[in-house]
Amino acid sequence: MKVLVINCGSSSLKYQLFNMENETVLAKGLIERIGLEGSMLKHQPAGKDKVEIMVEVPNHKVAVKLMLDALEHEEYGVIKDTSEISAVGHRVAHGGDRFSNSVKIDDNVMNELKKCIQLAPLHNPPNIWGIEAVREILPDVPMVAVFDTAFHQTIPEYAYIYGIPYELYEKYSVRRYGFHGTSHRYVSMRAAKVLNRPLETLKLVTLHLGNGSSISAVEGGKSVENSMGFTPLEGLTMGTRCGSIDPYIPLFIMEKEGVPLEKINDYLNKKCGVLGISGVSSDFRDIEQAAEEGNRRAKLALEVFAYQAKKYIGAYAAAMNGLDAIVFTGGIGENSSTVRRMICQGMEYFGIKIDEDKNKIRGQEADISADDARTKVLVIPTNEELMIARDTVALI
């Protein structure tokens, strides 16, 4: 059974084609700058050279056609024709409180997805464009929607309700949702395998650290907290997102800096975070290098990020009344030994200690705990695409 996994952004389309008999990737790729100048297809068939093609891609429908053409291309394709694709799984950012699990897509689901646009106006529309394009081009192929928010639907009411009039929750579904759920679910399951313990017995803090970062408390295999909230803006200070701040600050910025209301969302999402603190970059690799060269603000940005992560770990250990392991994943969590070390330093009270030699790894699964650590520290590369493919097979 071959399953195609698609993740559409506003100007990009990422894809992977899986052979689910052995869960191997047959091909993966990226179409970037959709609707912009300089659009490009980057296609990587398994065991073959990577293909890069400059091509005009005015919209997501053209992008889907380009992807399918690449998959069945005579030279660098991996299937004879699209009839070999048994199902398509789509990543969808926000399912609101309507979807607590992945679902097979039909007209009713599409209507509900459109209602969720108000909750994720930047992310859900391109997700929907991708679904609509595939439905038009491959009308007979079953499709599944897998939601970033679904895993966090087990967060208890007292943890997701904000201190605002309850009527706003009832009218507009204003509550904490949490994101990166597919990643947190995957690494939690892998952690149980690595620790050789039933997932139902574990209390984990999973740290998905990248340009967008979130931290989850996972108790017995269920999410009970996530640092992101009503939107992915809440939580840690991220690459360009401010994270949790005093609610009055946006009003203050609007007044003092003359940022109009219609641009404050863009300001908080794209001009803040470690970029704003460091003045160097939103890329942690650049910030780490600048810090090593003596840049004070770059060093401060790293310290802010690590300090906030520590606070979440401590808070979530308290919320679960225990902690068996913490798990690092995402681009930063998997690859930055510096960030991992900074977060784990000074957490011996929680039994967290890492081995400096073990911590030198990049992008590979490992237990980096010190031998005498009571709480395990794991690095587990995430695989959201495989999780989406598995959910798709289960539903189809």
TrEMBL record:
Which PANTHER family does this entry report, sorted A to Z?
A: ACETATE KINASE, ACETATE KINASE-RELATED
Q: Where in the cell is it found?
A: Cytoplasm
Could you cite one Gene Ontology molecular function of this protein?
ATP binding
Q: Which domain of life is it from?
A: Bacteria
Q: Which cofactor does it need?
A: Mg(2+); Mn(2+)
Transition state stabilizer, annotated site positions: H180, R241
What gene makes this protein? ackA
**Primary localization:** cytoplasm
Q: What is this protein called?
A: Acetate kinase
The cross-references to SUPFAM superfamilies, in alphabetical order and at most eight, read: Actin-like ATPase domain (SSF53067)
EC number(s) given by UniProt: 2.7.2.1
Q: What are the BP-aspect GO terms?
A: acetate metabolic process; acetyl-CoA biosynthetic process
| GO CC list | cytoplasm
Active site positions, chain numbering: D148
InterPro entries attached to this UniProt entry: Ac/propionate_kinase, Aliphatic_acid_kin_short-chain, Aliphatic_acid_kinase_CS, ATPase_NBD
- NCBIfam families hit by this protein: ackA
